[in-house]
Amino acid sequence: FPGLADVSISQDIPVEGEITVPVGSHSPDEDYSTLDEPVKDTIMRDLKAVGKKFVHVMYPRKSSALLRDWDLWGPLVLCVSLALMLQGGSADSKDDGGPQFAEVFVIIWFGAVVITLNSKLLGGTISFFQSLCVLGYCVMPLTVAMLVCRLVLLAGAGTVSFIIRLVVVGAMFAWSTLASTAFLADSQPPNRKALVVYPIFLFYFVISWMILTFTPQ
Amino acid sequence: QGGGSAVIDMENMDDTSGSSFEDMGEMHQRMKEEEEEEAEGEAGAGEEEDGEFLGMKGLRGQLGRQVADQMWQVGKRQASRAFSLYANIDILRPYFDVEPVQVRARLLESMIPVKMINFPQKIAGELYGPLMLVFTLVAILLHGMKTSDTIIREGTLMGTAIGTCFGYWLGVSSFMYFLAYLCNAQITMVQMLSLLGYGLFGHCVTLFVTYNIHFHSLFYIFWLVVGGLSTLRMVAVLVSRTVGHTQRLILCGTLAALHMLFLLYLHFAYHKVVEGILDTLEGPNMPPFQRVARDIPVVSNAVLNTTAKAIALTL
């Protein structure tokens, strides 16, 4: 080792120190350590986040809270409840008319994935899971419409009930499409918004169609 | 690029499409690979320097940090290489590079047959329009299946609709591409997908109208006029890109037959039961689709039918 030949350590330089590498500033660390808090706090925090997003969908303003902290709890709950309500009344194979649970589930998630891929391919700046989150949360008006339809169908299945259901489902479909467009279209180049809005329109149209043509046994 | 080869690669010579999206995709991929190579070169040089540096400064506690850093870099590079190899949607990005005005123009153009068949016509290799048209056809088919009370035993309505439409688009495109390869036609796979996809616009319009207004004569008129126009357009474009009478005949005959027959199939397979006709035809045989009457709103269909009948009578 020719380079080390003239290295000499004098006696007053202490050869000691810390082997551990500092990970970063410790002062805000206590806030990020969530392992020690009680379970109720964790659940309440997640529930509050989900509830805040529901409010954002009901009153669609251009806020980025829905996009920044995405989560898929809300879409899962909405999808499961919609699929349960849309299930055909009887499991009898003779009258197997209603869409099955798996079919609704697959349509919603497959449709959301396709729309996300489409918006990414068109040059969108939104990430995959953020887009899934927005599309899933905007199914909420249609779930409400399904609930209303079921209640109306309890009273009877005539022309009047069909018109009521048509109006309700139509209004909720427009609300869903507008809400998701308000969040998703901003991430696109301005002259291509129509290209992103059309698949969203088709997606919610198919779900609305399934809701409108549902009849219990 | 193919210097000294006696076989001329038609795909590379095909620049009649105007803006060659395939070349843009290739260039993009090549540029990315060059960037990655440069980045690797720099990282490699940096590592070597740090390695030598390490020999002199090992006692300062940077050893741990260097090793962790190196492992992170190697891991990240491996993961990003695997990701870019298998999940690269950037390959498809050039095919989605369209404006809404262009899509609308192409939709309308797909119904107008070109007259000039001696000069190869432009086909835009774009996949957004065809993909959206296939999904629209799926939605329309779903509507048709619901209003015709079709009940599918082994499978789901949605699965059948998606399978039919995507199967037609991808399958017939591949088959026509194979035939075009045999008949020496100048067309690439993406262009074939795009051409057939835009040809489905006529199908969408026809089925949208005839699933709601149930008249056999109306359907036949739409089939001939609308289906015929879109078929003529596709046929004309293909003829302009093929040389030789036999080859033109094979290609165009096959495409015309498949396209028109598909529309016929879509209408009749999910047709609403018209009173009296099926009763006389059925007899003791059970049809493959069990039609059980459901509480579908009959009112809207009846209103539409009577309105159409009244208009037809007054005309």
Detailed description of the structure:
- The complex is a heterodimer of chains A (217) and B (315).
- Chain A has 217 residues and is mainly α.
- Chain A has a domain at 70-88 and 98-213.
- Helices cover 62% and strands 0% of the residues of chain A.
- Chain A has 9 helices and no strands.
- Chain A has helices at 29-32, 39-58, 65-68, 73-86, 101-121, 128-137, 140-155, 159-184, 193-212.
- The longest helix of chain A has 26 residues, at 159-184.
- Residues 90-95 of chain A have low confidence and may be disordered.
- In chain B, strands 1-2 form a two-stranded antiparallel sheet.
- In chain B, helix 5 packs across helix 6, helix 7 runs parallel beside helix 9 and helix 8 runs antiparallel to helix 9.
- Chain B is extended, with a radius of gyration of 28 Å.
- By secondary structure, chain B is mainly α.
- Chain B has 11 helices and 2 strands, in the order H-H-H-H-H-E-H-H-H-H-H-E-H.
- Among the domains of chain B are: 62-97; 100-106 and 115-281, no CATH class.
- The interface between A and B is large, with 40 and 37 residues.
List the keywords.
heterodimer, A: 217 residues, mainly alpha, B: 315 residues, 2 strands
